[in-house]
Request: fold
Amino acid sequence: QVQPVESGGGLVQAGESLRLSCAASGRAFSDYNMGWFRQASGQEREFVAAIDWTGDTTYYADSVKGRFTISRDNTKATAYLQMDNLKPEDTAIYYCAASRGSSFGSWGHGTQVTVSS
Reply:
């Protein structure tokens, strides 16, 4: 089982970019689909993006489509979330998660992203 660890969060202004990283310790990172989720203060956690174990197939929430890009490097056991044209409504704690089936069972502790207007 892999254990994701997120990094790369911070405070930026609207329109700027950030790249989040998710380093996964454990065995067989390349066997796992990876996903990014976020939870804003007072809100439920929501899906942001996902990528299959090959890196060939990606999925995005409508709210980030065209602005965020998920990718992975299996040789480094790391997944990424490139976030461009950030908006204040993107402010949240971002979580990385791993899945070998239909649900995400391994979660990181999250990294804070704050976008000021």
Residues 18 and 110 are 15 Å apart (CA to CA). DSSP finds no helices and eleven strands in the chain. The mean pLDDT is 96.
